[in-house]
């Protein structure tokens, strides 16, 4: 016999009400022990219990849980970007090259090179001041030394007229202790001859770097001297012909030695502006003349580095990230642009009020145009 209980009945879900009802009827139809007289009251009781369970019994209804909203964080305000500070300079000439020994030296070229080369010296109060040098040579600091040396036939010397010469019979020179043509002597080719010689020592500041991060060394200055002395370099030989030796003493120290008889008063000019041996040392002097990077985007150590050169239009520079004076807040401008408006002053002056240029350099021909500046200044003053 099939067994069941009331407790099981009350746990039946209401969703299966009709299927459970059919089961009850089927159950009673197969029960022989019960009489029809007893079936009706029992069926009524079962139906009542089932209806009560569907209508009022406990239901397993899911309960919705309210989750309080999480606090939202207010994002920090986005800082307003500061536009880069830019200075635009009108320049009267477009240089043919920016290579130091390219043979096309011009004022326009040097105005631009001053932005990528800092020093090696500046002038303050009409006095030279070291920039990339620890100090300038002097008799007081022992970096300038005069000495008396014996000279022989065939040796390079400076003659009494101030010109480099090869010592030979009949050459007029200033012997040791003589500093004017009044005491000059003509060498007889036999007598011992002594002349004075100057030696200068230059020491670079520590920590200097090229714009690509390579250290700037004494060897870079010696490399520049070698390029300047090379016969394939179209440069003036005035200084190299008066130099007997130029060598690196250590990583930061260079020693210059003049030919006997050459006794200059300006010591600083005898330091050769460094060239990046680590980048250019693999080229010959002739190859450097044709190299586009050397002529258009030379490496420097100064406040700016060249980004682009648009022929006929402009040269654009940006801050050098390895500039040794960056901690001083230098340079003041983030971007520097040289624009080519030609030598006539009128084009350059017209670019000032339009904002195309902030400054006009000294390569512009101002002849007959200064009155225009006066009118422009009066107009701005009354505006």
UniProtKB/TrEMBL annotation:
GO molecular function ontology, one term from the record: peptide transmembrane transporter activity
Stored SUPFAM superfamilies: Periplasmic binding protein-like II
GO biological process assignments: peptide transport
InterPro entries according to UniProt: SBP_5, SBP_5_dom
Domain Solute-binding protein family: 198-361
Name of the protein: Solute-binding protein family 5 domain-containing protein
Source lineage: Bacteria, Bacillati, Chloroflexota, Anaerolineae, Anaerolineales
């Amino acid at each position: 016999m099939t067994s069941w209980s009331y407790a099981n009945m009350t746990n039946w879900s209401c969703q299966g009400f009709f299927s459970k009802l059919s089961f009850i009827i089927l159950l009673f139809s197969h029960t022989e022990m019960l009489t029809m007289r007893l079936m009706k009251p029992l069926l009524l009781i079962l139906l009542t219990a089932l209806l009560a369970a569907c209508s009022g019994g406990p239901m397993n209804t899911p309960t919705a849980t309210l989750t309080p909203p999480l606090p939202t964080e207010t994002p920090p305000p986005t800082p307003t970007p500061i536009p880069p500070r830019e200075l635009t300079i009108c320049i009267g000439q477009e240089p043919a090259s920016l290579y130091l020994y390219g043979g096309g030296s011009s004022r326009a070229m040097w105005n631009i090179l001053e932005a990528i080369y800092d020093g090696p010296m500046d002038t303050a109060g009409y006095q030279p001041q070291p920039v990339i040098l620890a100090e300038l040579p002097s008799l007081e600091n022992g970096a300038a030394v005069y000495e008396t040396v014996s000279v022989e036939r065939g040796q390079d010397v400076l003659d009494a007229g101030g010109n480099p010469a090869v010592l030979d019979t009949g050459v007029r020179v200033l012997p040791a202790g003589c500093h004017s043509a009044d005491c000059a002597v003509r060498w007889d080719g036999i007598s011992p001859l002594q002349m004075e010689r100057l030696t200068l020592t230059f020491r670079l500041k520590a920590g200097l770097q090229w714009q690509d991060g390579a250290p700037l060394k004494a060897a870079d200055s010696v490399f520049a001297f070698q390029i300047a002395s090379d016969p394939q370099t179209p440069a003036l030989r005035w200084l190299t012909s008066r130099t007997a030796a130029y060598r690196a003493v250590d990583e930061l120290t260079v020693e210059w030695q003049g030919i006997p008889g050459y006794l200059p008063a300006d010591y600083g000019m005898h330091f050769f502006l460094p060239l990046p041996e680590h980048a250019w040392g693999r080229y010959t002097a002739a190859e450097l003349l044709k190299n586009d990077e050397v002529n258009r985007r030379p490496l420097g150590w100064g406040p700016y580095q060249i980004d682009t050169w648009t022929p006929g239009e402009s040269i654009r520079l940006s801050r050098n990230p390895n500039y040794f004076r960056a901690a001083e807040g230098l340079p003041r401008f983030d971007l520097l642009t040289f624009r080519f408006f030609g030598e006539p002053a009128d084009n350059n002056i017209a670019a000032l009020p339009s904002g195309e240029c902030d400054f006009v350099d000294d390569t512009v021909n101002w002849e007959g145009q200064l009155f225009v500046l006066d009118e422009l200044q009066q107009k701005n003053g009354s505006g």
